[in-house]
């Protein structure tokens, strides 16, 4: 039997690839996400029948062999996230069936081979974060690729990357010298004739025209005039050309960069990945939600930049990052019990506003720690409304006709946080958010992710907590207390036991299998507010029997 499909991805493989592997009749080869070193296998060019080669996220060095052009059946070639050098072989023009070429995040240089226009099947093309030089082609298949295919190559020029190509001859030999002199004389005349305030307005208008107009094309009048205007060039400068050093997060539909505006304001620039299938829907939906909501525990929007081939949200920058980062990146003691209760209360308040007080009811659909941001005073803000639902009808059920910029064909949540009823085809409801919130609360206490495989018998996080928690001061509570720095006086210990027990019981109640038995988010927010005030020393805020919420 011949080996046709070899997938060893996502392991910890080291060393070099044996020649016998690359010289076989394999049709699909995937060695991605390992630690393989050395040069690319010499025998790749001998794989006459191979259709897909994925060697991304390894430590390959050296150059890309022109022999790869002999793989005439090749459709997918991914060499991204390695340390390859040299040029992109011109022999790739022989790959008539090539559909996906990704060599991003290497150290490749030289010019982009113009003869790649012969690869008429090419649909996905990514040269970002290399050192390519020269003019970016715009003919043939290149006409379909945006500047996102070339980010991180500062020496590329042309209309696609919005950088002028420098001419090598002296300026005084330019045919446009006389025209430039006339324009300069005209400008000087205008500057002498008008006042300073008119000059500022004129320069602002010229600047926006230079960079393809206002970054609000295609948005509603509310989005155009309610929020400050910002140009694409300002975002390029703020993020240092969207450099990898400024990247603070990435998701299915976007990348988030840290930026500094000209006024010195720190911002987070959420750039849409236009290649993702549902990205336009996600961007439109997030704009629709953010422009309608205003709450201290919900992420606010600063402005939007929307062009034909570039779309971004400009948001406040949170130096502490996401709740997931605070939970897992540093020592567990960084978040005290009081912090955790306050964060759970903040999240509940924000989502309760979406469900019960927002001008248009919103179902978030993706509550999880990575979608909660923490500001400098440890206040939590719910963010990322890319797959949320706007509910126009009463009762919390989002019918397709009621959803603005419909996201009906997008996954309603993340693995581990999705309520069981969604698996049976139910429409998103506010009770689905309550379920996700319950999983998040238990994760805050146990510091265990719902996707962890450490639970015996394959139990999910909430089922594991339900099976192990039998009241206050048991093993689950003891484990939670061990992760937090607490004053171990008897009175504080008693209050801590009770508070952790309250959180676990609330998490269990919110994750009931039947949606109708879960409390509303408003009830959960009220209970957490009492718990927060009690831990803060308010003797009038006593614990209630949490079972009364059902």
Describe the 3D structure.
There is one protein chain. This protein is α/β, with parallel strands linked by helices and 550 residues long. The protein contains 13 helices and 20 strands. The chain has helices at residues 19-22, 177-193, 196-210, 221-226, 232-238, 279-290, 323-328, 337-357, 430-446, 461-468, 475-482, 490-510, 521-535; strands at 5-7, 28-30, 37-39, 52-54, 59-61, 76-78, 100-102, 109-111, 124-126, 131-135, 156-157, 247-250, 254-260, 266-272, 303-307, 310-316, 361-363, 372-374, 380-382, 389-391. α8 packs antiparallel against α9, α8 (337-357) runs antiparallel to α13 (521-535) and α11 (475-482) packs across α12. The radius of gyration is 28 Å and the shape is globular. The N and C termini lie far apart (60 Å). The model is unreliable at 202-214, 216-225 and 393-409 (pLDDT under 50). GO terms for molecular function: ATP binding; protein serine/threonine kinase activity.
